[in-house]
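Please go through the sequence line and C-alpha coordinate line underneath and see whether the fold suits the sequence. See right below:
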Amino acid sequence: MSTTTSLQWLVVPEEIAAEPSRDLVGGKAWSLWRMRSLGLRVPPAFVVTTEACKAYFADGHMPDGLDEELVAGIRFLEQKLGRTFGGSERPLLVSVRSGAAVSMPGMMDTILDLGCNDTVEAALAAESSDPEFAAEVHRRFTGFYGRLVLGCTEELDELPDTAAVRAAIAEDVDATVPADPWEQLRAAVAAVFESSRSRRALAYRKHYGIPDDLGTAVTIQAMVFGNLDDDSGTGVLFTRNPVDGTREPYGEYLAGGQGEDVVSGRITPEPLSYLAARWPSVHAELLEAAECLDREGRDAQDIEFTVQSGELFLLQSRPAKRTARAAVRIAVALVDEGVLEPEEALSRVTADQIRTLLRPEIAAGAADDAEVLASGVPASPGVATGPVVDTPEAAQATPGSILVRKSTSPDDVHGMIAAAAVITEQGGSTSHAAVVSRALDTPCVVGCGVGTVAALVGRTVTVDATTGRVYAGELPTSAADESEDDDLRRLTEWAERAAPLTVSTTAVLEPVFDADAAVDEVGGKLPDIPAGTRSVRGGIFCTLDGVRAAMDAGVEEIVTARRLPVLLAAVAHHRRIS
Protein backbone atom coordinates (compact mmCIF):
# COMPACT_ATOMS: atom_id res chain seq x y z
CA MET A 1 0.00 0.00 0.00
CA SER A 2 1.47 3.35 -0.93
CA THR A 3 0.37 6.89 -1.42
CA THR A 4 -0.02 7.78 -5.07
CA THR A 5 1.58 11.19 -5.65
CA SER A 6 -1.50 12.63 -7.40
CA LEU A 7 -3.75 11.88 -4.43
CA GLN A 8 -3.85 14.10 -1.34
CA TRP A 9 -6.55 12.44 0.75
CA LEU A 10 -6.48 8.80 -0.35
CA VAL A 11 -4.12 5.86 -0.05
CA VAL A 12 -4.71 3.23 -2.73
CA PRO A 13 -3.30 -0.29 -2.53
CA GLU A 14 -0.94 -1.40 -5.25
CA GLU A 15 0.52 -4.81 -6.03
CA ILE A 16 3.92 -4.07 -4.45
CA ALA A 17 4.23 -1.31 -1.90
CA ALA A 18 5.89 -0.27 1.35
CA GLU A 19 4.25 -0.36 4.76
CA PRO A 20 1.86 2.56 5.29
CA SER A 21 1.71 4.74 8.39
CA ARG A 22 -0.88 3.43 10.82
CA ASP A 23 -1.46 7.02 11.99
CA LEU A 24 -2.35 7.96 8.40
CA VAL A 25 -4.48 5.02 7.25
CA GLY A 26 -5.83 3.69 10.56
CA GLY A 27 -5.63 0.25 12.06
CA LYS A 28 -8.16 -1.43 9.77
CA ALA A 29 -6.50 -0.38 6.52
CA TRP A 30 -3.07 -1.17 7.94
CA SER A 31 -4.25 -4.69 8.76
CA LEU A 32 -5.43 -5.11 5.15
CA TRP A 33 -1.97 -4.15 3.93
CA ARG A 34 -0.37 -6.62 6.35
CA MET A 35 -2.62 -9.51 5.35
CA ARG A 36 -2.13 -8.72 1.68
CA SER A 37 1.66 -8.59 2.11
CA LEU A 38 1.51 -12.07 3.69
CA GLY A 39 -0.23 -13.44 0.60
CA LEU A 40 -3.65 -13.82 2.24
CA ARG A 41 -6.88 -13.30 0.29
CA VAL A 42 -8.30 -9.83 1.00
CA PRO A 43 -10.99 -7.94 -0.96
CA PRO A 44 -9.47 -4.86 -2.66
CA ALA A 45 -9.87 -1.54 -0.86
CA PHE A 46 -8.73 2.06 -0.61
CA VAL A 47 -8.68 4.40 2.37
CA VAL A 48 -9.53 8.02 3.07
CA THR A 49 -6.82 9.14 5.48
CA THR A 50 -6.97 10.60 8.97
CA GLU A 51 -5.61 13.83 7.49
CA ALA A 52 -8.86 14.16 5.51
CA CYS A 53 -10.82 13.71 8.75
CA LYS A 54 -8.80 16.43 10.48
CA ALA A 55 -9.32 18.75 7.49
CA TYR A 56 -13.05 18.01 7.57
CA PHE A 57 -13.36 19.28 11.13
CA ALA A 58 -10.93 22.17 10.60
CA ASP A 59 -12.82 23.46 7.53
CA GLY A 60 -16.35 22.43 8.49
CA HIS A 61 -16.90 20.56 5.21
CA MET A 62 -15.45 17.83 3.03
CA PRO A 63 -11.86 18.70 2.03
CA ASP A 64 -11.42 20.23 -1.41
CA GLY A 65 -10.59 17.56 -3.95
CA LEU A 66 -11.82 14.61 -1.88
CA ASP A 67 -14.89 14.05 -4.08
CA GLU A 68 -12.69 13.65 -7.15
CA GLU A 69 -10.33 11.32 -5.31
CA LEU A 70 -13.25 9.13 -4.20
CA VAL A 71 -14.05 8.66 -7.87
CA ALA A 72 -10.43 7.63 -8.51
CA GLY A 73 -10.58 5.11 -5.67
CA ILE A 74 -13.81 3.56 -6.95
CA ARG A 75 -12.36 3.36 -10.47
CA PHE A 76 -9.46 1.39 -8.99
CA LEU A 77 -11.88 -1.14 -7.45
CA GLU A 78 -13.87 -1.35 -10.68
CA GLN A 79 -10.71 -2.12 -12.64
CA LYS A 80 -9.57 -4.78 -10.16
CA LEU A 81 -12.89 -6.62 -10.17
CA GLY A 82 -14.41 -5.94 -13.58
CA ARG A 83 -17.47 -4.40 -11.96
CA THR A 84 -19.21 -1.02 -12.18
CA PHE A 85 -20.31 1.16 -9.27
CA GLY A 86 -24.07 1.62 -9.69
CA GLY A 87 -23.98 -0.51 -12.86
CA SER A 88 -26.88 -2.39 -14.42
CA GLU A 89 -24.57 -5.36 -15.02
CA ARG A 90 -22.00 -6.80 -12.59
CA PRO A 91 -22.50 -3.97 -10.09
CA LEU A 92 -19.86 -3.06 -7.51
CA LEU A 93 -20.96 -2.66 -3.89
CA VAL A 94 -18.67 -1.51 -1.09
CA SER A 95 -18.44 -1.41 2.67
CA VAL A 96 -17.54 1.84 4.43
CA ARG A 97 -15.70 1.35 7.72
CA SER A 98 -14.08 3.68 10.19
CA GLY A 99 -10.56 2.95 11.37
CA ALA A 100 -8.57 5.08 13.79
CA ALA A 101 -4.90 4.45 14.47
CA VAL A 102 -5.89 3.09 17.89
CA SER A 103 -8.39 0.24 17.86
CA MET A 104 -11.75 1.20 19.36
CA PRO A 105 -14.00 -1.87 18.89
CA GLY A 106 -17.64 -1.09 18.33
CA MET A 107 -17.11 2.66 18.56
CA MET A 108 -17.97 3.51 14.95
CA ASP A 109 -20.33 1.49 12.78
CA THR A 110 -19.87 -0.10 9.37
CA ILE A 111 -22.11 0.53 6.40
CA LEU A 112 -22.44 -2.56 4.21
CA ASP A 113 -23.68 -2.95 0.62
CA LEU A 114 -23.26 0.73 -0.25
CA GLY A 115 -24.02 1.51 -3.89
CA CYS A 116 -27.31 -0.39 -3.94
CA ASN A 117 -30.46 1.03 -5.55
CA ASP A 118 -33.35 -0.36 -7.58
CA THR A 119 -31.21 -0.78 -10.69
CA VAL A 120 -28.43 -2.52 -8.79
CA GLU A 121 -30.90 -4.81 -7.03
CA ALA A 122 -32.21 -5.96 -10.42
CA ALA A 123 -28.63 -6.52 -11.65
CA LEU A 124 -27.74 -8.54 -8.55
CA ALA A 125 -30.87 -10.64 -8.97
CA ALA A 126 -29.95 -11.40 -12.58
CA GLU A 127 -26.30 -12.18 -11.81
CA SER A 128 -26.99 -14.41 -8.79
CA SER A 129 -30.23 -15.90 -10.12
CA ASP A 130 -31.58 -15.20 -6.65
CA PRO A 131 -34.01 -12.26 -6.37
CA GLU A 132 -34.39 -12.89 -2.63
CA PHE A 133 -30.66 -12.39 -2.08
CA ALA A 134 -30.70 -9.15 -4.08
CA ALA A 135 -33.74 -7.87 -2.20
CA GLU A 136 -32.11 -8.68 1.14
CA VAL A 137 -28.94 -6.79 0.15
CA HIS A 138 -31.05 -3.75 -0.76
CA ARG A 139 -33.09 -3.97 2.46
CA ARG A 140 -29.97 -4.25 4.60
CA PHE A 141 -28.22 -1.34 2.91
CA THR A 142 -31.27 0.88 3.25
CA GLY A 143 -31.39 0.13 6.96
CA PHE A 144 -27.66 0.75 7.46
CA TYR A 145 -27.81 4.04 5.61
CA GLY A 146 -31.00 5.18 7.32
CA ARG A 147 -29.64 4.51 10.79
CA LEU A 148 -26.00 5.54 10.39
CA VAL A 149 -26.16 8.38 7.87
CA LEU A 150 -29.68 9.78 8.18
CA GLY A 151 -29.95 9.22 11.95
CA CYS A 152 -33.11 7.14 11.99
CA THR A 153 -33.83 5.86 15.49
CA GLU A 154 -36.55 3.38 14.56
CA GLU A 155 -35.87 -0.37 14.77
CA LEU A 156 -35.23 -1.28 11.12
CA ASP A 157 -33.60 -4.70 11.31
CA GLU A 158 -36.82 -6.68 11.55
CA LEU A 159 -38.75 -4.87 8.81
CA PRO A 160 -39.62 -7.23 5.94
CA ASP A 161 -38.47 -5.35 2.84
CA THR A 162 -36.89 -2.21 1.43
CA ALA A 163 -40.22 -0.43 1.03
CA ALA A 164 -41.01 -0.88 4.72
CA VAL A 165 -37.55 0.36 5.72
CA ARG A 166 -37.88 3.40 3.47
CA ALA A 167 -41.29 4.21 4.97
CA ALA A 168 -39.97 3.95 8.54
CA ILE A 169 -37.03 6.24 7.74
CA ALA A 170 -39.27 8.80 6.04
CA GLU A 171 -41.67 8.85 8.99
CA ASP A 172 -38.89 9.16 11.58
CA VAL A 173 -36.48 11.67 10.00
CA ASP A 174 -38.37 12.90 6.92
CA ALA A 175 -35.53 11.87 4.62
CA THR A 176 -34.85 9.33 1.90
CA VAL A 177 -31.89 7.19 0.95
CA PRO A 178 -30.46 8.67 -2.27
CA ALA A 179 -30.52 6.49 -5.37
CA ASP A 180 -27.24 7.96 -6.64
CA PRO A 181 -24.37 5.70 -5.39
CA TRP A 182 -21.91 8.60 -5.48
CA GLU A 183 -24.13 10.70 -3.24
CA GLN A 184 -24.43 7.68 -0.92
CA LEU A 185 -20.64 7.37 -0.76
CA ARG A 186 -19.91 11.02 -0.05
CA ALA A 187 -22.51 11.16 2.71
CA ALA A 188 -21.27 7.90 4.24
CA VAL A 189 -17.68 9.18 4.45
CA ALA A 190 -18.89 12.36 6.14
CA ALA A 191 -20.99 10.29 8.56
CA VAL A 192 -17.94 8.24 9.57
CA PHE A 193 -16.00 11.45 10.19
CA GLU A 194 -18.86 12.76 12.35
CA SER A 195 -19.06 9.48 14.28
CA SER A 196 -15.53 10.04 15.57
CA ARG A 197 -16.92 12.90 17.66
CA SER A 198 -20.04 11.05 18.84
CA ARG A 199 -20.91 10.62 22.51
CA ARG A 200 -19.96 6.95 22.53
CA ALA A 201 -16.61 7.63 20.81
CA LEU A 202 -15.81 10.44 23.24
CA ALA A 203 -16.71 8.22 26.21
CA TYR A 204 -14.48 5.41 24.97
CA ARG A 205 -11.51 7.70 24.32
CA LYS A 206 -11.90 9.36 27.72
CA HIS A 207 -11.98 5.98 29.46
CA TYR A 208 -8.77 4.83 27.75
CA GLY A 209 -6.95 8.18 27.64
CA ILE A 210 -7.03 8.42 23.83
CA PRO A 211 -6.67 11.97 22.40
CA ASP A 212 -9.89 13.49 21.03
CA ASP A 213 -8.13 14.92 17.97
CA LEU A 214 -6.91 11.51 16.82
CA GLY A 215 -9.36 11.44 13.90
CA THR A 216 -10.41 8.41 11.92
CA ALA A 217 -9.61 7.02 8.50
CA VAL A 218 -12.36 5.57 6.29
CA THR A 219 -11.73 2.23 4.59
CA ILE A 220 -13.80 1.61 1.45
CA GLN A 221 -13.64 -2.03 0.48
CA ALA A 222 -15.28 -4.17 -2.18
CA MET A 223 -18.09 -6.26 -0.73
CA VAL A 224 -17.96 -10.01 -0.38
CA PHE A 225 -21.25 -11.65 0.54
CA GLY A 226 -21.64 -14.12 3.36
CA ASN A 227 -25.35 -14.26 2.57
CA LEU A 228 -24.97 -15.10 -1.14
CA ASP A 229 -25.83 -18.81 -1.02
CA ASP A 230 -25.71 -21.97 1.09
CA ASP A 231 -21.92 -22.09 0.74
CA SER A 232 -21.44 -18.61 2.20
CA GLY A 233 -21.19 -17.21 5.71
CA THR A 234 -19.25 -14.96 8.05
CA GLY A 235 -17.38 -15.27 11.30
CA VAL A 236 -14.85 -14.10 13.84
CA LEU A 237 -11.79 -16.06 14.92
CA PHE A 238 -9.45 -15.39 17.85
CA THR A 239 -6.10 -17.12 17.43
CA ARG A 240 -5.96 -17.70 21.19
CA ASN A 241 -8.81 -17.96 23.63
CA PRO A 242 -9.57 -14.34 24.71
CA VAL A 243 -11.22 -15.55 27.91
CA ASP A 244 -8.51 -17.74 29.44
CA GLY A 245 -5.59 -17.31 26.99
CA THR A 246 -5.21 -20.96 26.00
CA ARG A 247 -3.44 -21.67 22.70
CA GLU A 248 -6.48 -22.74 20.71
CA PRO A 249 -8.71 -21.14 18.06
CA TYR A 250 -11.81 -19.51 19.49
CA GLY A 251 -14.64 -18.07 17.50
CA GLU A 252 -17.96 -18.39 15.76
CA TYR A 253 -19.41 -18.80 12.29
CA LEU A 254 -22.79 -17.77 10.93
CA ALA A 255 -23.90 -19.48 7.74
CA GLY A 256 -25.75 -17.15 5.38
CA GLY A 257 -24.84 -14.04 7.38
CA GLN A 258 -22.87 -10.84 7.00
CA GLY A 259 -20.19 -9.60 9.38
CA GLU A 260 -22.38 -7.20 11.32
CA ASP A 261 -24.73 -10.08 12.18
CA VAL A 262 -22.00 -11.69 14.30
CA VAL A 263 -20.38 -8.65 15.94
CA SER A 264 -23.68 -6.89 16.69
CA GLY A 265 -24.96 -9.79 18.75
CA ARG A 266 -28.39 -9.67 17.08
CA ILE A 267 -28.04 -13.29 15.95
CA THR A 268 -26.45 -16.13 17.90
CA PRO A 269 -23.95 -17.93 15.62
CA GLU A 270 -22.51 -21.45 15.62
CA PRO A 271 -19.10 -22.47 17.00
CA LEU A 272 -16.22 -22.80 14.53
CA SER A 273 -16.67 -26.57 14.62
CA TYR A 274 -19.72 -26.00 12.42
CA LEU A 275 -17.50 -24.54 9.69
CA ALA A 276 -15.03 -27.40 10.15
CA ALA A 277 -17.81 -29.91 9.54
CA ARG A 278 -19.43 -28.01 6.67
CA TRP A 279 -16.30 -26.81 4.86
CA PRO A 280 -13.20 -28.61 6.21
CA SER A 281 -10.95 -27.15 3.50
CA VAL A 282 -12.07 -23.58 4.25
CA HIS A 283 -11.69 -24.21 7.98
CA ALA A 284 -8.16 -25.54 7.43
CA GLU A 285 -7.26 -22.49 5.30
CA LEU A 286 -8.65 -20.20 8.01
CA LEU A 287 -6.58 -21.87 10.75
CA GLU A 288 -3.46 -21.67 8.58
CA ALA A 289 -4.05 -17.94 8.03
CA ALA A 290 -4.71 -17.48 11.76
CA GLU A 291 -1.43 -19.17 12.67
CA CYS A 292 0.42 -16.96 10.21
CA LEU A 293 -1.15 -13.76 11.59
CA ASP A 294 -0.54 -14.80 15.20
CA ARG A 295 3.12 -15.50 14.43
CA GLU A 296 3.73 -12.38 12.36
CA GLY A 297 1.78 -10.17 14.75
CA ARG A 298 3.63 -11.58 17.79
CA ASP A 299 0.34 -11.51 19.67
CA ALA A 300 -3.12 -13.05 19.78
CA GLN A 301 -5.23 -11.84 16.85
CA ASP A 302 -8.92 -11.06 16.36
CA ILE A 303 -9.77 -11.94 12.74
CA GLU A 304 -12.97 -11.13 10.84
CA PHE A 305 -13.67 -13.27 7.79
CA THR A 306 -16.30 -14.00 5.18
CA VAL A 307 -16.84 -17.11 3.08
CA GLN A 308 -18.42 -16.38 -0.32
CA SER A 309 -19.47 -19.43 -2.31
CA GLY A 310 -16.87 -21.57 -0.58
CA GLU A 311 -13.99 -19.06 -0.92
CA LEU A 312 -12.39 -17.53 2.19
CA PHE A 313 -11.78 -13.77 2.43
CA LEU A 314 -10.10 -12.04 5.37
CA LEU A 315 -11.53 -8.63 6.28
CA GLN A 316 -9.50 -7.56 9.32
CA SER A 317 -6.88 -8.73 11.79
CA ARG A 318 -5.97 -6.84 14.95
CA PRO A 319 -4.54 -7.61 18.39
CA ALA A 320 -7.32 -9.35 20.28
CA LYS A 321 -9.06 -7.69 23.18
CA ARG A 322 -8.79 -10.09 26.09
CA THR A 323 -9.61 -10.59 29.72
CA ALA A 324 -7.02 -10.06 32.43
CA ARG A 325 -6.64 -13.82 32.83
CA ALA A 326 -6.03 -14.23 29.10
CA ALA A 327 -3.54 -11.32 29.03
CA VAL A 328 -1.43 -13.01 31.71
CA ARG A 329 -1.56 -16.47 30.11
CA ILE A 330 -0.75 -15.14 26.63
CA ALA A 331 2.16 -12.98 27.84
CA VAL A 332 3.77 -15.90 29.65
CA ALA A 333 3.09 -18.29 26.77
CA LEU A 334 4.73 -15.95 24.26
CA VAL A 335 7.87 -15.96 26.40
CA ASP A 336 7.82 -19.77 26.54
CA GLU A 337 7.38 -19.86 22.75
CA GLY A 338 10.44 -17.65 22.26
CA VAL A 339 8.39 -14.83 20.74
CA LEU A 340 8.90 -12.31 23.55
CA GLU A 341 11.58 -11.58 26.11
CA PRO A 342 10.33 -11.36 29.73
CA GLU A 343 10.76 -7.57 29.84
CA GLU A 344 8.55 -7.14 26.75
CA ALA A 345 6.00 -9.56 28.19
CA LEU A 346 5.62 -7.20 31.16
CA SER A 347 4.40 -4.51 28.75
CA ARG A 348 1.59 -6.81 27.57
CA VAL A 349 -0.03 -6.90 31.02
CA THR A 350 -1.17 -3.84 32.96
CA ALA A 351 -1.44 -3.24 36.67
CA ASP A 352 -5.19 -2.75 36.28
CA GLN A 353 -5.52 -6.15 34.61
CA ILE A 354 -3.79 -7.82 37.54
CA ARG A 355 -6.04 -6.00 39.99
CA THR A 356 -9.01 -7.26 38.00
CA LEU A 357 -7.65 -10.80 38.04
CA LEU A 358 -7.27 -10.68 41.80
CA ARG A 359 -10.78 -9.44 42.41
CA PRO A 360 -13.20 -11.64 44.40
CA GLU A 361 -14.97 -14.79 43.17
CA ILE A 362 -18.11 -16.41 44.55
CA ALA A 363 -17.10 -18.29 47.68
CA ALA A 364 -16.92 -22.07 47.43
CA GLY A 365 -20.33 -23.62 47.96
CA ALA A 366 -22.13 -20.28 48.15
CA ALA A 367 -23.95 -20.81 44.86
CA ASP A 368 -24.98 -24.42 45.48
CA ASP A 369 -28.46 -23.59 46.78
CA ALA A 370 -28.80 -20.14 45.21
CA GLU A 371 -31.66 -19.39 42.84
CA VAL A 372 -30.51 -19.12 39.22
CA LEU A 373 -32.47 -16.34 37.54
CA ALA A 374 -30.79 -16.51 34.13
CA SER A 375 -27.94 -18.27 32.36
CA GLY A 376 -26.08 -17.72 29.12
CA VAL A 377 -22.67 -17.64 27.49
CA PRO A 378 -19.83 -16.48 29.81
CA ALA A 379 -18.23 -13.74 27.69
CA SER A 380 -16.00 -11.88 30.17
CA PRO A 381 -15.30 -13.44 33.56
CA GLY A 382 -15.72 -11.97 36.99
CA VAL A 383 -18.28 -11.55 39.72
CA ALA A 384 -20.43 -8.52 40.45
CA THR A 385 -23.41 -7.85 42.67
CA GLY A 386 -25.83 -4.96 42.36
CA PRO A 387 -29.26 -3.70 41.35
CA VAL A 388 -30.29 -4.38 37.75
CA VAL A 389 -31.07 -1.50 35.38
CA ASP A 390 -32.03 -1.64 31.71
CA THR A 391 -30.71 1.60 30.20
CA PRO A 392 -27.17 2.96 29.89
CA GLU A 393 -28.35 6.22 31.46
CA ALA A 394 -29.61 4.36 34.52
CA ALA A 395 -26.27 2.53 34.76
CA GLN A 396 -24.47 5.88 34.81
CA ALA A 397 -26.83 7.20 37.47
CA THR A 398 -26.59 4.07 39.67
CA PRO A 399 -23.01 3.22 40.70
CA GLY A 400 -22.42 -0.51 41.03
CA SER A 401 -25.47 -1.42 38.97
CA ILE A 402 -25.86 -4.35 36.55
CA LEU A 403 -26.84 -3.35 32.99
CA VAL A 404 -29.20 -5.76 31.20
CA ARG A 405 -30.09 -5.26 27.53
CA LYS A 406 -31.67 -7.22 24.70
CA SER A 407 -28.33 -6.70 22.92
CA THR A 408 -25.83 -3.88 23.12
CA SER A 409 -24.67 -1.46 20.44
CA PRO A 410 -22.14 1.37 20.37
CA ASP A 411 -24.89 3.63 21.76
CA ASP A 412 -24.70 1.67 25.05
CA VAL A 413 -20.96 2.02 25.66
CA HIS A 414 -21.22 4.87 28.18
CA GLY A 415 -23.50 2.68 30.29
CA MET A 416 -21.27 -0.36 29.88
CA ILE A 417 -18.32 1.67 31.17
CA ALA A 418 -20.32 2.65 34.25
CA ALA A 419 -21.86 -0.78 34.92
CA ALA A 420 -20.44 -3.39 37.28
CA ALA A 421 -21.55 -6.15 34.88
CA VAL A 422 -23.41 -6.55 31.58
CA ILE A 423 -26.10 -9.10 30.69
CA THR A 424 -27.80 -9.54 27.30
CA GLU A 425 -30.67 -11.64 25.99
CA GLN A 426 -29.07 -12.17 22.59
CA GLY A 427 -25.63 -12.64 21.07
CA GLY A 428 -22.62 -14.89 21.38
CA SER A 429 -19.03 -14.70 22.54
CA THR A 430 -17.98 -12.40 19.67
CA SER A 431 -20.94 -10.01 19.94
CA HIS A 432 -20.55 -6.30 20.67
CA ALA A 433 -21.44 -6.83 24.35
CA ALA A 434 -18.84 -9.59 24.69
CA VAL A 435 -15.98 -7.82 22.91
CA VAL A 436 -16.46 -4.44 24.61
CA SER A 437 -16.94 -6.00 28.05
CA ARG A 438 -13.68 -7.91 27.65
CA ALA A 439 -11.93 -4.68 26.69
CA LEU A 440 -13.37 -3.03 29.81
CA ASP A 441 -12.69 -6.16 31.89
CA THR A 442 -16.30 -6.01 33.00
CA PRO A 443 -18.10 -9.26 33.86
CA CYS A 444 -20.47 -10.15 31.02
CA VAL A 445 -23.00 -12.89 30.27
CA VAL A 446 -24.62 -12.92 26.83
CA GLY A 447 -27.36 -14.91 25.11
CA CYS A 448 -29.51 -15.41 28.23
CA GLY A 449 -32.69 -15.64 26.17
CA VAL A 450 -35.92 -13.77 25.57
CA GLY A 451 -37.49 -12.28 28.69
CA THR A 452 -34.27 -11.81 30.64
CA VAL A 453 -34.58 -8.02 30.75
CA ALA A 454 -38.09 -8.14 32.16
CA ALA A 455 -37.17 -10.87 34.65
CA LEU A 456 -34.17 -9.07 36.14
CA VAL A 457 -34.88 -5.32 36.12
CA GLY A 458 -35.25 -3.94 39.63
CA ARG A 459 -33.81 -6.98 41.39
CA THR A 460 -30.49 -7.30 43.20
CA VAL A 461 -28.47 -10.08 41.60
CA THR A 462 -25.02 -11.66 41.65
CA VAL A 463 -23.53 -12.15 38.20
CA ASP A 464 -21.05 -15.00 37.89
CA ALA A 465 -19.67 -14.32 34.43
CA THR A 466 -17.18 -17.18 34.75
CA THR A 467 -19.97 -19.77 34.67
CA GLY A 468 -22.55 -17.65 32.83
CA ARG A 469 -25.11 -17.69 35.65
CA VAL A 470 -27.08 -14.89 37.28
CA TYR A 471 -28.15 -15.57 40.88
CA ALA A 472 -30.80 -13.94 43.02
CA GLY A 473 -29.50 -11.74 45.81
CA GLU A 474 -25.98 -11.08 47.06
CA LEU A 475 -23.68 -14.10 47.40
CA PRO A 476 -20.48 -14.18 49.49
CA THR A 477 -17.18 -14.03 47.62
CA SER A 478 -13.53 -14.98 48.12
CA ALA A 479 -10.37 -13.48 46.65
CA ALA A 480 -7.50 -15.14 44.76
CA ASP A 481 -3.86 -15.07 45.94
CA GLU A 482 -1.23 -14.00 43.39
CA SER A 483 1.39 -16.29 44.95
CA GLU A 484 -0.68 -19.41 44.18
CA ASP A 485 -0.88 -18.88 40.41
CA ASP A 486 2.17 -20.02 38.40
CA ASP A 487 1.74 -17.41 35.64
CA LEU A 488 1.40 -14.61 38.18
CA ARG A 489 4.39 -15.90 40.11
CA ARG A 490 6.57 -15.82 36.99
CA LEU A 491 5.39 -12.35 36.06
CA THR A 492 6.22 -11.22 39.58
CA GLU A 493 9.76 -12.60 39.29
CA TRP A 494 10.29 -10.79 35.97
CA ALA A 495 8.80 -7.57 37.34
CA GLU A 496 11.04 -7.68 40.42
CA ARG A 497 14.09 -7.74 38.16
CA ALA A 498 12.81 -4.89 35.99
CA ALA A 499 11.31 -2.59 38.63
CA PRO A 500 13.37 0.42 39.81
CA LEU A 501 12.19 0.00 43.41
CA THR A 502 11.29 -2.75 45.87
CA VAL A 503 7.72 -3.82 46.56
CA SER A 504 7.28 -5.69 49.84
CA THR A 505 4.51 -7.04 52.03
CA THR A 506 6.22 -5.68 55.14
CA ALA A 507 8.42 -2.61 55.50
CA VAL A 508 12.16 -3.20 55.38
CA LEU A 509 13.50 0.33 54.91
CA GLU A 510 13.14 3.28 57.31
CA PRO A 511 11.72 5.87 57.60
CA VAL A 512 8.23 4.76 56.49
CA PHE A 513 5.45 7.16 55.48
CA ASP A 514 1.93 5.73 56.07
CA ALA A 515 -0.58 7.48 53.82
CA ASP A 516 -3.53 5.75 55.48
CA ALA A 517 -2.70 7.56 58.72
CA ALA A 518 -3.07 10.88 56.88
CA VAL A 519 -6.29 10.02 55.07
CA ASP A 520 -8.42 12.29 57.28
CA GLU A 521 -6.28 15.23 56.24
CA VAL A 522 -5.92 14.62 52.49
CA GLY A 523 -9.01 12.55 51.71
CA GLY A 524 -8.59 10.78 48.38
CA LYS A 525 -5.81 13.11 47.22
CA LEU A 526 -2.15 12.19 46.98
CA PRO A 527 -0.39 13.29 50.19
CA ASP A 528 2.92 15.13 50.22
CA ILE A 529 5.69 12.61 50.85
CA PRO A 530 8.11 13.91 53.47
CA ALA A 531 11.65 14.52 52.32
CA GLY A 532 13.98 11.61 53.04
CA THR A 533 11.22 8.98 53.03
CA ARG A 534 12.56 5.60 51.87
CA SER A 535 9.41 3.47 52.25
CA VAL A 536 5.70 4.20 51.85
CA ARG A 537 2.52 2.27 52.59
CA GLY A 538 -1.19 2.92 52.20
CA GLY A 539 -3.90 2.26 49.66
CA ILE A 540 -3.14 5.42 47.67
CA PHE A 541 0.33 4.09 46.84
CA CYS A 542 -1.19 1.00 45.22
CA THR A 543 -2.79 3.18 42.53
CA LEU A 544 -1.03 4.20 39.30
CA ASP A 545 -0.83 7.83 40.43
CA GLY A 546 0.45 6.77 43.84
CA VAL A 547 3.21 4.64 42.34
CA ARG A 548 4.27 7.49 40.06
CA ALA A 549 4.31 9.93 42.99
CA ALA A 550 6.40 7.58 45.12
CA MET A 551 8.92 7.02 42.34
CA ASP A 552 9.13 10.72 41.51
CA ALA A 553 9.82 11.41 45.22
CA GLY A 554 12.75 8.97 45.22
CA VAL A 555 11.02 6.36 47.38
CA GLU A 556 12.87 3.02 47.40
CA GLU A 557 10.14 0.71 48.70
CA ILE A 558 6.33 0.44 48.53
CA VAL A 559 4.59 -1.79 51.06
CA THR A 560 1.41 -3.57 49.92
CA ALA A 561 -0.32 -6.92 50.33
CA ARG A 562 -0.61 -7.40 46.55
CA ARG A 563 2.77 -6.82 45.01
CA LEU A 564 2.41 -7.55 41.28
CA PRO A 565 0.08 -4.66 40.33
CA VAL A 566 2.44 -2.18 42.02
CA LEU A 567 5.50 -3.76 40.41
CA LEU A 568 3.92 -3.53 36.95
CA ALA A 569 2.92 0.09 37.53
CA ALA A 570 6.49 0.88 38.57
CA VAL A 571 7.94 -0.87 35.51
CA ALA A 572 5.53 0.98 33.20
CA HIS A 573 6.33 4.37 34.74
CA HIS A 574 10.07 3.68 34.58
CA ARG A 575 9.69 2.78 30.89
CA ARG A 576 7.86 6.05 30.18
CA ILE A 577 10.43 8.29 31.85
CA SER A 578 13.53 6.46 30.63
